[in-house]
Amino acid sequence: MFLKHIDLIKGLYYSKTASLNDLSIYTGRSIPYVTKGIADLMKLDIVKEVGIRASSGGRKPATYSLIADTGFIISVAMNQFLTRIVIVNMNNEFVGEVQEFELKLGDNKDAIHSLIACIKAVVVNSGLAQDKFLAIGITMPGFIDAFLGNNLSFLKVPDETLVTYIAKHAGLPVFIENDSTAIALAEQKFGLPIARNNSMIINLGWGVGLGMIINKEIFKGHSGFAGEFSHLPLHKNGKLCSCGKQGCLETEASLLAIEAKAAEGLKQGQVSSLLKYDTVSADNIIDEALKGDAFAIKIIAEAAYFIGQGLAILLHLMNPESIILSGKGSVIGKLWLSPIQQAMNEHCIPHLTTYTQLAVSNLGNNAQLLGGVTTVIENLYKLNPQANISEPT
Amino acid sequence: MFLKHIDLIKGLYYSKTASLNDLSIYTGRSIPYVTKGIADLMKLDIVKEVGIRASSGGRKPATYSLIADTGFIISVAMNQFLTRIVIVNMNNEFVGEVQEFELKLGDNKDAIHSLIACIKAVVVNSGLAQDKFLAIGITMPGFIDAFLGNNLSFLKVPDETLVTYIAKHAGLPVFIENDSTAIALAEQKFGLPIARNNSMIINLGWGVGLGMIINKEIFKGHSGFAGEFSHLPLHKNGKLCSCGKQGCLETEASLLAIEAKAAEGLKQGQVSSLLKYDTVSADNIIDEALKGDAFAIKIIAEAAYFIGQGLAILLHLMNPESIILSGKGSVIGKLWLSPIQQAMNEHCIPHLTTYTQLAVSNLGNNAQLLGGVTTVIENLYKLNPQANISEPT
DNA sequence: AAAACTTTTTATTTTTTTTAAAAAGTATGA
DNA sequence: TCATACTTTTTAAAAAAAATAAAAAGTTTT
């Protein structure tokens, strides 16, 4: 019964506050239908009226919101080295601080148990009753089968799916999604308006991920592998990539490639404030670049130029409304922006670039966490089979 | 009233013969709704019952078809040098022969009037009454604004759109579409089943066109320029392309590039049956390659390899169900197939190629003509504003 | 050859949308 | 300033479409 009229709940969640008319447009259903649905949800104390909104002429509409503490979602954003967890309420507000846990994904047999322990700790420390939590949304790198709930690259468990395993131990429903896909979802729902319809979302991180929004929907391809931007065969540098091929974009443009280039440059006697570190990490390079170190800026710009070259190809094929730079690397967005734009201009048919906007995300480092929440919201209809739902087609 | 229940007419047109159940699935509407609609159309003598179909167990369904001579569509397929026109009935059968007219598109002020004269001649020679024709579907190269009905590259007319101009002179409604997009439409509706949902349709011709089918729909991008496969910046050969950039795929892989390479090779003393021609045309090369000439086969294979390299990129990004080789060049499909497959295997992450089928179209040289018909069928709802229609969303 | 199972068609009920009307505002101008 | 014209939102009544149930017409199994 909590899950009656999922589409209305989704609409309210993403817009925070909406009128009956807004919801009718969002859901594509008639005003009377929406009116009845909201009345039901108000009786159930899931939705409340929050006041009257200004109008451009005409009767002022009543507006509605979800009641914040009806339910909570746990979002778990993992990368190769760090796992971040936060609790989010029904108004999409973080409840308490984002908790960070060092957790190595690769080559770590204990990763799955560490992860479960982290989640349990967050639940217990929150002081909230277990039945107040709706579900857990986990976002992480790797080839992910979101439908079955498995990650083909990391956190393998025997005899059952990753999702059922974690759900069993945490006592809550679990949904997983690829990190780049999750970031694209977050950008679509909470990011810039130009990211809503046809947008390419770049996840600048240890690799270069891509999430595609085509005709207002995430596009994953026929078998779920679309958006392999990182492994576009663009270079003839002979460098071996983790995928087994040579010359992938990743070998020149990822944070890993940047680390390698920095080490090489310093060995060859480059003057740089990076010399003060024993071993140079990507975070060091980012820090020093932000402080203005010329060498750090130069190698970041180089990588950005290669990303721009890849984006030129994307532009020719997809003609998107926008390209959004998001993910971990978006914090240095301004450093990437101009070399990327430069490369795009050089390698594109002129009028293509004029129709596509290149922008840095406004979600900062929270995109992946918001993507985990979005993953749960999008799967809400799976939580209660008796719910009054129209499954997505 | 002829145009009542457009969606049912479309379903019958594309499937030729269908049961009520088939149509219910095709239109996404309920059986009672479809039942009533078909009854209406039968009263109007647009649809007839054509018999009972076998069943795998259970009552045998009645099947229905459009009545072939209720209406006719004129399909006009243009390329740079040749215009082909055919009349098609409501059972998607060609009425009479395909008529060919030499008509240069580029640098020809008189092209528009020649085109209108050709269309008029076909109408008159058919002996059919003018009011039996539904519309004209014109497919041609260039940047086409199908919504406004203009071609930004060819056949410009002052003060009005191309579509209204031709419609005025021919006395029939006109719809235009880009040739590669039209071919993609034809492959989706009449081609191999694997081309229906997520497919990349390559138009091998004077350029290398691409039509994308994503989630069962033609995808044209945010401003209609998606699918610029021909101008992917993949080569560092310094060759200037018609688009103004250097190193586009087209400079190595189009029929024009093949012509140039053949001339160059012959000048350098290559032994080949091509030597018997004064000037070597693409058609000559295709002919001799089909007859087994080693040199002709070699330069075609070279171009094919470059196309395969481009397709590898497409595969990484789109992960389609299939790639279909169509258009003029598909008649030598088998010659392209293996070098293209080879290049794809070399440049793709292994498991990507295993999920995508590469195939040659089964529509031969008719794809573009069928695409013109499809363009009309898809725009049928625009013909009669009073019709009982639900416009596509 | 009857029973069990499928698939299609018809009839009935329920749901949802469409249309129309009413309510609640804003802007305008005599 | 206050009636008039115009908007937008909300409520009510009518019409359309879908979902459900039942019947009809077959096929397959035992």
TrEMBL record, chains A, B:
Q: Which UniProt keywords apply?
A: Kinase, Transferase
Instruction: Specify the domain of life of the species encoding this protein.
Output: Bacteria
* Molecular function terms, GO-annotated: kinase activity
**Is this entry keyworded Transferase?**
yes
Quick check: keyword Lipoprotein in the entry?
no
| One Pfam family cited in the UniProt record for this chain | ROK
Which InterPro entries does the entry link to? ATPase_NBD, ROK, WH-like_DNA-bd_sf
- Which family, according to UniProt? Belongs to the ROK (NagC/XylR) family.
Protein name in the entry: Sugar kinase of the NBD/HSP70 family, may contain an N-terminal HTH domain
Q: Which organism is it from?
A: Mucilaginibacter gossypii
Q: In the record, what lineage is assigned to the organism producing the protein?
A: Bacteria, Pseudomonadati, Bacteroidota, Sphingobacteriia, Sphingobacteriales
